Amino acid sequence: MRDDETTAPAPLWRNSRFQLVWTGSAFSVLGIEVADIGYSLVILALTGSPAQAGLFGAVQAAAALIAGLPAGAFLDRHDHRGTLLVTEGTRAVVTAGVALGLTTGDLTSGALLAAAFVLGATQPFGGAARLLLVRAVVLPNQLTRALTQEEIRTGSTQLAGPPLGGFLYGLSSTLPFVFTALSFAISFGCALFLRIPHSEPEGDVQADSGAPRQKADILAGIKGIWNAPTLRAATLLVTAINTTGAPIALIAVVILRKQSVAPWLIGFAMSGMALGVLAGAVLVRPLHRRFPPGFLLLGVALAEVPLFAALALPFGPWWVTAILFCAMLGVPALRVLADVLIFRQVPDERRGRTITAVMTLFGMGVPAGTAISGLLLQYFSTLTAMLTLAATLALAALYSLGKPAIRQARWPE
After folding, report:
1. pLDDT tens-digit map of 1-10
2. What's the predicted TM-score (pTM) here?
C-alpha cells in the first residue's frame, strides 16, 4: 500500500497535478466546442452544401478511427505527458493555420479536409493520454470523484462552447479559430508544467530494467473486449448509438439554418446538449443503482428513437434545444458504464490499448453516420433523414434486446 493511502486523502481541489490536467482539459474541450460550430458555419458559408459539412466530420472521425489502435500501443510504451504536449501543440498550429487562411482568403475545401484529418488523427492520442494522466495523479479511491469532475467539465464546456462559437462567428469568421488555437496553447502550457508521480511509467516500462523492448500487441485491447460476450454485445449497441447520434449537432445546425435562425441563436440552441450532459451526470448513480448495465444500454437506445424523429419538426430553436437536452441525458451514464465495466478491469500495462480500443470500436460507425446524414440532408427532406436514423437505431436496439449477453449483464462487484 502506498504511504499516501494510509491517511485520509487531500481533497481534489488541493491536488495541483489533477487541477493542471483538469484545467488543460477544460480549455482544450472548450476550444473544440467553439471550433466545431465554426467549422460547420464556415463550410456551409463557403460551399452551401450540408454534404460538404458532413464530409468534414466524416474525415475527422475516420482519421480518429485509423489512429485509435496505434495510439493505444504507443501510449502503453511511451510518456503520456509528452504525448499530450505533441497533441496539443499540433492542434494549436493547425487551428491557427485555418484562422490565417480565412484572414487571407486562401482557405480551400481541401485545406479544411486536411485539417480535419490531422485534428482527427491526434484525438485518440490526446484523449487517451489525458484519461491515463487522470489515473496517474489521483488516488484510486478518488478516481470516481475525479471522473465526475471531468463529466462536469465536459458539460460546462459544451454549454459555453456552442453559444460562444456562434457569437464569435457573428463578429468575424476567424475569431472561433483564433480562440481555439489559444485554448490549445493554454492546454499545452498546463501539460508543460505538469509533474507526474514516480509511479507513472515514463517511456517504455521495460527500459529501466535493461530488457529489450517488445513490440506491443496492437490488437490486445480489441481481443480482450471481443472475447467477452457481454462487452462485445454492449460495444456493438453503443456503436449503433454513436453511428446515428454523432451527426446530431450537424443535423441541428442544418435544420436551424433552413429556418433562417441567427448564428448566435444556433449556438445557444446547441447548448441543450451540454445542459443534458450536466443533468445526466446527476442521474448516473440512480440509474446505475436501479438498472443492470444491459437494460440501461437498451433503455438509452430506445429513448433516442422518438427524439431523433421529433428533431425534424419545424418548431424553432427552443424545440431543438429541448430535443438535444433530452437526447444527452443518458450519455454520462454510458460513459461511466464503460469506465466501470472495462477500464477498471484491465491491468495498467494494457490500459492504453484498451481505452483506445473502446474509442475505436465505439467510433466505427461515426464516419459513415456523419457522411450519410449529410447526404440525406442534401438530397432528401429533413423528416426523411431523421426517420431513417431513428429506424436504424430502433432496429439495432431490437436486435440487441434478443441477445442474452445484454439482458443478463451485471455490474462487477
Report:
1. 344 444 556 6
2. 0.69
